[in-house]
Amino acid sequence: MPDVAAVGLMICLSSGTLVAVAWFLGGRHWEDGCQQMVFSLLLYGLAFACMVWLSATGYPEWFSGAYVLYAGGISCSIWALYRFHKAKAPTLMLLGLPVLTAFLFEVFIESLTLRTQIISALFLFSYCWMLYAMVQRQNRPISPGSWMMLLGVGLLACAMLLRVLFISISIAVSAQAHAVNTLICSYAILFVALHLTSIGFWVMCRDRAELCMQRMAYEDGLTGLANRGTILQMMERALRQSHCYNNAISLLMIDLDHFKQINNVFGQQAGDQVLIDVGNVLQESIRPQDLLGRYGGEEFIVVCPDTQEQDARQLAEHLCAVIRNSVQARSAFKSWPVTVSIGLCTCTQVPASKTVESLLYKVDLALGQAKEAGRNRACHYVDQPPNFKEA
Predict the structure, then answer these.
(1) Fewer CB in a 10 Å sphere around the end CB: N or C, the chain?
(2) Bridge partners for 5 per DSSP
């Protein structure tokens, strides 16, 4: 059976190793909260060392320091979580946790049992706060890293709950009676929980970085819509399906009118916001079966499977109207209504030889006709002369 000094050495070595691993693995995700998580692990390790040193020396000052360091570790963990979610951390509450812990220790310094229960209840509330923040800010299915961290924080919360309900298992009390067994048991639980929490946080950062890289491959970075390569691939699949099922397919190419002038007058930032707003309006206005992407610059593409010419015309006219009525370029002193020109092309029967390039060529011609006709309108391409007619 190891003695207290051996347990303390194990705590220090494992905590130091965990800090080193977190520092090494989290270096690429420093801005995502890994720096705060490293500080948290360091404070946790120092807190455990103080607790073990208390059992060896009997000086209550070490236990006071352990409480404050442990509270600081919790605050850094919560700070890391807010940093990960790009949210502003409640600084006063995070700073207040170790301060309140020190105050409670001094107030209840003569009552070991009551002091341990109250401060453990405070730590339990903090861990429940972490769990709530993690669950509330999940805008997608929970990742494996999130599950791992939830499990780790849940174990820490359970450990605090047990200290509130059963004071006899507290490190503070057991350090005076059967210190070795209780310290080893507590260390095992906390060791597992802290490893799950820290490694889970790093996995969360890694998973999000990989997801961002994947999105960059198929999403437009500004609008969040499908980028040029992705929308062209979607068009190819839609063409094949239209050929297989003998359905019509329509294509809309949407171009912002006078976009260069908008950039010159209002600035590039305002121009970017216009592109974002137009993308959002298009996303909200098209049908569920339609496919939307940013073709490049100020051009967008809408692919409409199983859509006849008349339905495509109605959709194009609706898009022109809703953008004209809802999107504006703005500055501090003036605003400018944004309009679009739309080219349409419909293939009633899609032959096997039909290519994306031929469809794009026709819809581009229709878009040019819409611009020549005065912009802020839609023109539909037809194969028989006259080559264009206004929608």
Answers:
(1) N
(2) none
